[in-house]
Write a structure and sequence with these properties.
Elements: H1 10-14, H2 24-38, H3 46-57, E1 62-66, H4 72-82, E2 83-84, E3 87-91, H5 98-102, E4 103-108, E5 113-118, E6 125-129, H6 136-139, H7 143-148, E7 150-153, E8 156-159, E9 165-171, H8 183-186, E10 191-193, H9 200-209, E11 223-224, H10 225-236, H11 242-257, H12 265-281, H13 289-300, H14 313-323
Parallel strand pairs: 1-9, 1-10, 2-11, 3-6, 6-9
Antiparallel strand pairs: 4-5, 7-8
Helix pairs in contact: 2-3, 2-4, 2-10, 3-12, 10-12, 11-12, 11-14, 12-13, 13-14
């Protein structure tokens, strides 16, 4: 599908259902190969790499928040390099405009017509680097793209590539020089992760690897977009029985009853999708309550606003997990 093809194309709505899924074993093997490949560049972040793959397989987006220099951008680059797909990086700054992200219509003097110049959002993997350095108006340029996989410019709607994944990084140490992300955007990120500093052994290994040429420069892809689409279809077909769905609904209801802002229906869907992806990573074709519990914090904590200043979203989510029985 070209950048200029409109989302109203009837083939756009059916393309995902026409894809032949991988077997669960093949999809699990694919994720293992990608993790191994990324670990040639990123040291000591096995769980975070798996979390990113869960997001990609669940058709979601990821927010990485941490201090500068811990490898957020490099991790996103390594994931994209491991899959033979298009990759664009947008450096969010205070003077960045929405059109710098989505694209703009430019008048062509020769043809006497306006021609659409696609922005960096037209890629399979988009790295929104330091997204909270741009004002809310520019951040909002991603809202339609993240939710509906399309961009509307001057009344024309254009479909984004499939797959489409946003990996946004957020600087959390210079509060006076950044903007807070609106909840409407935060809620569109399936997961929010912190990498943290590596331990001594991992940092020693890292320093050895970057002596000379950086390993990211020689990283070769181990998959392509077609096989990733097939793996995503595999995840979408993972069985989620009614008791598990009811368990998620009761967990979400608990957060709404015990917080100023609880988990939205979008958040409930996100944890189900993440649990489906986690099941595939573990080689299963069905979701268990353990899959749901393992995904709760990274999928829900950033969506919850507690009613007092002494607790956090993570506290509310943990209280919901502790108080909600598995039936």
């Amino acid at each position: 599908m070209t950048d200029g093809q409109q989302a109203t194309d009837p083939t756009a709505t059916s393309r995902s259902t026409d894809i032949e899924p991988l077997s669960v074993d093949d999809a699990a093997d694919l994720t293992a190969r990608i993790v191994e490949n990324v670990e040639r560049v990123i040291v000591g972040q096995h769980d975070a790499i798996e979390d990113i793959l869960v997001v990609a397989l669940a058709r979601g987006h990821l927010l990485l928040e941490d201090v500068p220099g811990v490898g957020k951008t490099m991790l996103a680059r390594a994931i994209a390099a491991s899959v033979d797909c298009s990759f664009k990086r947008v450096q969010f700054t205070p003077d960045l405009l929405p059109a710098d992200v989505t694209g703009v219509n430019v008048f062509d003097q020769r043809s006497q017509e306006f021609e659409f110049q696609p922005g960096p959002v037209f890629a399979n993997v988009v790295l929104a680097d330091e997204i909270n350095r741009a004002p809310p108006k520019t951040q909002a340029a991603l809202l339609e793209a993240m939710e509906e996989r399309q961009v509307t410019v001057d009344g024309d709607t254009r479909a984004l590539p499939d797959p489409f994944v946003v990996i946004a990084t957020q600087n959390d140490v210079e509060a006076g020089q950044t903007y807070e992300l609106p909840m409407a955007e935060v809620d569109r990120f399936n997961k929010k992760l912190r990498l943290g500093y590596p331990d001594e052994a991992a940092e020693t290994e890292l320093l050895g690897r970057v002596t000379g040429d950086h390993p990211i420069e020689s990283l070769e892809p181990v998959a392509d977009t077609e096989v990733l689409r097939r793996a995503r279809r595999t995840v979408a077909e993972v069985d989620v029985r009614e008791p598990v769905r009811n368990y998620v609904a009761r967990l979400a209801a608990h957060t709404r009853e015990h917080a100023e802002l609880g988990v939205s229906p979008r958040g409930a869907i996100a944890v189900i999708q993440a649990a489906q992806a986690r099941a595939v990573l573990d080689g299963r074709s069905f979701v268990t309550p353990d899959d749901v519990q393992g995904e709760l914090q990274s999928v829900w904590a950033h969506r919850v606003r507690p009613g007092d200043r002494t607790s956090t979203g993570a506290d509310v989510v943990e209280a919901a997990r502790s108080a909600t029985p598995v039936e």
